């Protein structure tokens, strides 16, 4: 089997949405987002620069992963959000002979690109028809979109000794929010927007701990905090902290803290 055939599918997110007039907030995401205006003219103002313009059908915003933006629209509008996981951008970079760990996209507002627009309207038609051509067709359009972005709107990402401050903050915030879930290396590397192989090395350089050990330590600390509060039974505490069962939690608490859940409960007395 070829290397290309072994690579997992990486889907482009397609979201066709209607919004009311007023403030718009694009929150930081682990995905790169290309927003295409899909309705009639709308007056838009940038809160930061006080710049005003009229946005017409086909006009685009390109928002890199980890970027937050705000603006105001004076009218209701329809927008098409194309969400590119960084792993999709990296796959396109590999196909183009680029270093997948040094590529990103540049922030760009109010621009037009005929090729991107052609792909966008094909995806809009798919979304309106509930994706009749399936995942493979959407993935092929996603790769074409990523290749166009890398060819014309690429930003170089410098890989240094560890994760950047922003990358590390996104990863640790994600860990804290999802401690009770099955956290995988693949998921955390996507949040950091680097390949899984590099993420392990960069994370350890940044924190001094392997990823798995860091997650376990955070789970133990979460369990300790919940036990001290005394609001939940011990079995529920284990699940809330991300352990599979009570004995699993007790084993890791002994290793990390040198005490058992019972010792912590007795310390409250």
Automatic annotation (TrEMBL):
<keyword id="KW-0238">DNA-binding</keyword>
<dbReference type="InterPro" id="IPR018060">
    <property type="entry name" value="HTH_AraC"/>
</dbReference>
<dbReference type="GO" id="GO:0043565">
    <property type="term" value="F:sequence-specific DNA binding"/>
</dbReference>
<keyword id="KW-0804">Transcription</keyword>
<protein>
    <submittedName>
        <fullName>AraC family transcriptional regulator</fullName>
    </submittedName>
</protein>
<dbReference type="Pfam" id="PF12833">
    <property type="entry name" value="HTH_18"/>
</dbReference>
<feature type="domain" description="HTH araC/xylS-type">
    <location>
        <begin position="169"/>
        <end position="267"/>
    </location>
</feature>
<keyword id="KW-0805">Transcription regulation</keyword>
<dbReference type="InterPro" id="IPR009057">
    <property type="entry name" value="Homeodomain-like_sf"/>
</dbReference>
<dbReference type="InterPro" id="IPR050204">
    <property type="entry name" value="AraC_XylS_family_regulators"/>
</dbReference>
<dbReference type="GO" id="GO:0003700">
    <property type="term" value="F:DNA-binding transcription factor activity"/>
</dbReference>
